[in-house]
Structure formats: C-alpha cells, structure tokens
Amino acid sequence: MDTQVIGHRTPRVDGENKLTGRADYTTDWYVEDMLHGYPVPASIAHGTLEALDIEPVLAMPGVVAVYHHGNFPRLYRSPSSQAHQDQVSEVRLPFEDERIHYDGQYVAMVVAERYEQARAAAQALQARYRQDDGARPGLLYTREDGRPLESEGGSRGDPESAYERAPVKIDHVYGIAPESHMQMEMHATLAQWRDGRLIVHESSQGVIYQQKAMARIFDLPEEQVEVISHYIGSGFGNKLFMWPHAVAVAAAARELGRPVKAVLPRQQDMESGGNRPASRQRLRLAADEQGRLQSMRHDSTTETSFVHPYVDSVGSPTLSLYACDNAAISQHLLEVNHGTPCPMRAPGEVSGIYALECAMDELAIALDMDPLELRRRNYNHEDPAKGLPWSSKHLDTCYDSAARRFGWERRDSAVGSMTEGDEILGWGMATSSWFAGRQPCMARVELRADGTVLAACGTQDIGTGTYTVVAQTVAELTGVPLDRVEVRLGESSLPAGPLSGGSMATATTLPAVAAAVRAAIDELKEVATDEDAPFTGADPDGLTFRDGALVDAQGKRVTFDELLTGQKLGSVNGDGQAAPGDEQQQYSFRSFGAHFVEVRWDPAITRLRVSRVVSSIDIGRAVNPATARNQVEGAIVMGMGMGLFEKLDYDPRDARLINNNYSDYIVTSHADMPDIDVELLDNPDYAFNEFGARGVGEIGLTGIAPAIANAVYHATGKRIRELPITIDKLLDI
Amino acid sequence: MMESSETSAQAGETVTVSLTVNGEPRQLQVTPNVVLLDALRDDLRLTGTKKGCDHGQCGACTVHVDGKAVNSCLRLAVMCEGRHVTTVEGLARDGQLHPVQRAFLEHDAYQCGYCTPGQMMSAAALLEDERIAADDASVREAMSGNLCRCGAYKNILEAIQDARRDVTAGTGEGA
Known about the structure:
The complex is a heterodimer.
Chain A: H1 15-20, E1 35-41, E2 47-53, H2 54-58, E3 63-68, E4 99-100, E5 106-112, H3 115-124, E6 126-131, E7 147-148, E8 154-156, H4 159-165, E9 168-176, E10 188-194, E11 197-202, H5 207-217, E12 225-228, H6 244-256, E13 260-263, H7 266-272, E14 279-287, E15 293-304, E16 327-335, H8 349-367, H9 371-377, E17 382-383, E18 388-389, H10 395-406, E19 418-420, E20 423-435, E21 441-448, E22 453-456, H11 466-478, E23 485-488, H12 505-528, E24 544-546, E25 549-551, E26 557-559, H13 560-566, E27 571-578, H14 583-586, E28 590-602, E29 607-618, H15 625-645, E30 675-681, H16 704-716, E31 722-723
Helix pairs in contact in A: 8-9, 8-16, 11-12, 15-16
Chain B: H1 3-10, E1 15-21, E2 24-30, H2 36-43, E3 62-65, E4 68-71, E5 84-86, H3 99-107, H4 116-127, H5 136-142, H6 153-171
Helix pairs in contact in B: 3-6, 4-6
C-alpha cells in the first residue's frame, strides 16, 4: 500500500496538550462541590481488623464521612468475565469483611472537604488488628508450589524420553522478583451521580470494561454508567481492569450525594494497585551435538493474592519460539499475602522468555556454541504450537542486522576476556517476541461542514500514540490534513473499542476507523447525488473521494465542506466495525526481534552498567515510526529495570511491603541510560489487517532482561538466575 | 513527620500567602500544612504540574521558584510568600512555545506525558544553569531527578540538546 501519512513520522496530534499542561488526566479533574477521598491501608498483611476508632476522626476539620466494613453499602461483586468485558482486577469488594489478606488492603476511606483534611484524618485513624501467624511473604521465600493449573499446560511429542536420550542437556531454575508498574500517574477516580447516572473519571486502560463492571457492582443498566479517561499517566497493565478504590469512591459519592475524588498515594498504589507476580521457572532443555533442540520443558509457578486468582501465563511462548518436536509446559499457582497481581507489560511472556532465553544461553555454553548460532539452528517457519505458518516472520533478518550493527562477530566467548581499561565487557543476546492479537471494534467518523473530520472510538491512548495513529488513518483515507482531524477517545459512550493492552489497540482500532471513514464517504456520495445537489442523478459509485473532495469522471470536484454547507447539513456520519476473520485459521500471528546488550563490569568498584543495546524488531508496519520506536526504546529502559533494579521487597516475618516508594524501589533513571540503537523492520503484515500493523507496546520488553543476564555471565562468569541482578549477587563473598 | 503542620492545621486557621505565579500576583488562603504542589493544583487549578510521589522522589511536580527548579511537593505553600513561581502553564510566552516545548514535540520526548511538565521545567532551568556542562553525560545526570517510567529518556536528551541551540541564541525563558 503506497501511503502518504501512515508509515510516516509525524508529531503527536495531542502533543501540544501534553506540553502545555492542558491535557486532562483524571487527577486534573475538579468539579463543583467535590470532596476528597483518602483510603486507609491496613498495617498488617495477614489477620483480622478488630476495631476502628472512628469518632475522633469524624470530629477532625472538614471530615464528612468515614466508610468501613460497618457502614459501607451492600453492593454486588462483578462476575469479572473477560467475555462479558466486566473483568475487574480484584473481585473482592472494598470493606467486604474484616479479614486482612495483604499489607495495604483498605480498611476504611475518609472523605473530607479538602485533600489535606482527608489525608490528616486517614493518617490519624487508629485501627486495632489481630495478626495471624503464617503470613506468606511471597513465592520466592518458600519451596511451596500451590495448586496445578490445567489451563496453563500443554505438550507435544515425548519430551521426557527425548531429554533422557539427548547428549547435551541443561536443567536450571530461574526466578523473577515481583515488580511494580510504577506508572507515573497513580490510580485515580472521580465519581459523580447525576439523576441516578454514574459518571466516573478514571485513569483507565479500558473504559468499556470499567463501565460494565460498575454497572454490575451498582446494579445499574450499562447505559447509566459513563467512564471517561482522556489522558492516562500510563498504566502498563495495572489500569486495564478496575480496582476496589474506584468502587469505594463511587459508593461514597452516591451515599453523600456529592462528587468524590481520590488519588491513591504512591505507597498505596504500590501496595494494592497491582504488581507483576513473582515466578519460579524450571527449564529443562536438551539438544543433539549439532545444537538441534530435542526436548524443551518449562515448569513454572507464579503467585497471586488470597482474594483474586490472577494467572501470569509464563510458559506460553516456549511452545512457539523454536523448532522442537518434544515440548511441554506446566504451571502452578501459589496464594501469598501480597496485593493482587495483574498484567504488567508483556505479561507472562516477558517472564517466560527471560527464563527460556537464559536457558538457551546456558545450553549454548554446554554445546560450546555461539548463542546466536544456537537460535539460528532452531529457527522455525511455522508455529509449532498451532501447526500454522507464521503470517510474516523476519527474525532471521533481525538476527543478522542487529548482530552486524552490534559487532557480534568480534565477540570472544571466553568469560571475562573482553576488557577496556578497568572494565570487563560482557556481550549477551536474546530473542524477543510477543503475540499479535486483535479484537472486534467499532468506530464512528463524521465529515463536518466546517471542513474538519471527527473520529471517535471507545478505546484509550495510554501514551502509545493512539490519538495520533487514528488521526493518521483518517488523514490517509480522506486526504484531509492532520490539523483538521479531531480524535475522541477514552469515553465509554463512544462506539465500543478495545482495551489499551496486549499491544492490540492499533491493529484493532484502525480497521474499524477505516470502515467508518468509508461509510461516511458513502453517505457523502448519497448526499451528493440527491436532488438539488452538485452531482444530482449521478451514480454514487462513479464518484471518487480524493483529497477531501468528491470527483466525478469528468473531473468535476466538490470538497466535502462545500457540499455539506451547500446542502445545509452539519455533517455526514459513518459507523464502522471490524473484527478478526478467517485469517486466524490460516496463520499464526506473532512479532519477533533480537536484542544485543553490552554490559561493563568494573570489579574494583563493584560497578555494573548496561552500556549499549542494539535491537532489531519486526512489528509489521509501524504506523508512526516515531511513536513506535519510542515504545521499543522505552521498553528497553523498563527491561533494564527488570534486569538490574526492580524488586518489590516483602518482609519475610510478616509479609509487609518494605519498599513502597520511588527511592527504595529502583526504576531506570536518566543517568542509567546506555546508547540505544533500535531498528524497526518494515514488513507490513497484510494478512493480519489492511494496514499491516501488529502492535508495538510490549515486544521491546521481552528479551532485554535475559540479554543482560547473559551479558553479565559473559563478563563475570556468574550465572545469576534470579532477577534483579543487583550487585550484591556479583560480590565474591 | 507531617504531624506538627497537621496539628496546627487542625485548628483550621488559615494563612494568607501572596506570591506571583506565571507573572500574575496571586493570593492563597491556606492552612499551614498545604503543600505548594497541592495549592497550585487544588487552589489555583494550575493542573499542569503533576503529582507522582509526594516525596520529592520522581520530579513530576518540578516548578521554578525564583528561577530555580524545585520539587513543589517538598515545599509548603506558606514558604512561598513573595516568591515568583513558574509552572508549565507559564513556560510558553506570548503564545509561542518555549524552545524546550517545541523540541519535546519535535523529538517525541514523551509518551504518556505525565512526567513531561516536570521534565521540561527541569530542562528549561538546566539550560540556563552555567554549572551544568553541555555534554550528554552531564545533562543525563542533571535530569536524573525526573523519572520517566515510559522510558523516553533518549528522546528527552535529544530534545534538550536541540533546544539548547535556541536558548543560547537568546530566545529562552531567562526566568
């Protein structure tokens, strides 16, 4: 497809709003008569709330109400069905009972006139607990495995006997500490009731899901609930599905008859607003002497809270990434006294690929083979998990290109052999991958008499650039310049769009927008060929729409704004919808890439840094190369955190969260930045959708942590199998 | 740690604070425990300045006080009597984006945009700060009080170095 706008770099259409402070994030909403809510977190992780000393707090300045188990209205749990789009992050309602299952679980919420008053009262509220013995501080503190998950199992061939027969094999256990999303905008809700209708501003990656969940919980018809999320201070998965704070705020607003807003303090956001669960993963790989994989087994355990069974599907990529006739995955789930985990960027796959790609490195060493060569020898051309050909796989090109730019052929495989001054260089690599998904979607487009075009869809822009790629699609198909395209997203009253998750928003939304553009143009042609119109009597199908104008065979040209103005019409509208189709039975869709990482290790001062990352990623068509590249670069930055810094630390004695802030939970800072060289291959995947785009939000994160771990081994000879690789693990003590 | 200011605030007594915000004289009527960040947002409805941690750890709330970049979450409103405060809303002048804003747009130096006001306020200040050298490593170090979880640091650095040319050409804020 020869395109003018799609596939070309353009500044974000919402850029000026973000740069001038005009962008209306949920936290920025203030409405008349609004009260401030401030949740009160439990200070134990396992036990029972015995008493709350409410009276003194009610007497504090500005305090309007305190909600808790004793007075919270009776509501209904959401069924939390993905199919019915009413999924929530935690099915347990706030204040449902007095059992405490994790540190930071809400025991009350104070509502006051001013923020400072709510905060003061929440901090003053005295609670008495009975703390039970036997709190589980987390999966990585125990050998327990919990219960098996049939849904996460899968196998082909006979991996057990193939493993026994094979000449070269490895068997190792890998771990990943729980991580926090640490999105910059904390969870926030503003709820108001107007004539029985609930209007919620929420920092949400899924306004439609939250609308439906709220309708179930408050027993309202769906159309009586509106959820708005115009700008989101990102989410990385923890804003996909609603959390209990939103229920508490909406209930308080109903009880008090006044709008209530709550912005979680960072500490609470980290305790109870979602996390990536820890995982323990055993990898058993076996190969013949030529390095051809004979057997792969990936047995995992992940953790969840006691109130919601979240499953991170860590084994899923293992059945697809390499050619191997004998493979099996299995998974267990252990309940621990943590806040409920939830999807976090590349959920499941990033964890599984970490363990698999470390194991491949260890297998390469066992084979005395270059780790890149081992990947090449096990390259597949179809998805062995589905028995379908890949729609468009160019991983070999990614390997070639990234290895060349990195200089991989100069690698000396001997540990610690590459030095520069006082520093030892470590070079590691890993494969990167993320499945390509697509959902049904609806959209609406209006061609308006003032010469502008409106596109609307009930999806969101979490910073990935959805506003911009929707505008580009409209501009591409109408010829109307970007500055005359308006995009509305983030309202549940708009035509139903997808979650901003799974890297699916672009591939899901753009075909529906395109269908709506075409429907609006068809409508315009009807208007144009009506009585007393510029093309009266002409065949609508004989007209073409180009550069914002209808043109007939004789070359007569009328712009849509002239036409609409002349016909005294404000606009013509088109409704569009799109969904995945037969192609899903013909191909397997997945994106692939390769990361090459250089670390520098200075043993004299115990300093480890990532100095260079070279990546090639194939995402099909990049609708906007600038925002797409930004996604991969940002994912590399987050992957450095996963590899080197990030760990939610729970006290082994009582399961309380120790590092609930940005100083003690370390994320990658600007000073940590390596040189990053990202290449996006441009191979449009037209089997997937008409724009050839597979999505880009998550793939870049996969493979970074193992590439770092493999580079650290190359530099130090230390195989650190539990993330993060903090420098204490590298000390010789 | 909050207790003393919270306690005095419980008397409900408010203090009048006169300050200049984005060039305009403003008055606040606040209890002593009101933080500058919350006063800007809740009282003056200047919501461009963001709260990311409330502990001076993330930099999202960075504003200029008398020309210096500070974390507005670490400063009580009552400490700002007579001060000149500039927020992101005051960064553009005469309808023209500040060179840092233009460069952030051009270089896609953000994703979600939530840390961006703070990033830009720090960037605008460092470009005027003679103590901070112009090389990339110095800028990275100087910008490390502003976390970006989306990880747009590469583009942020490019934007700042690009804006440097315009600022040194004399079109900068000079606050």
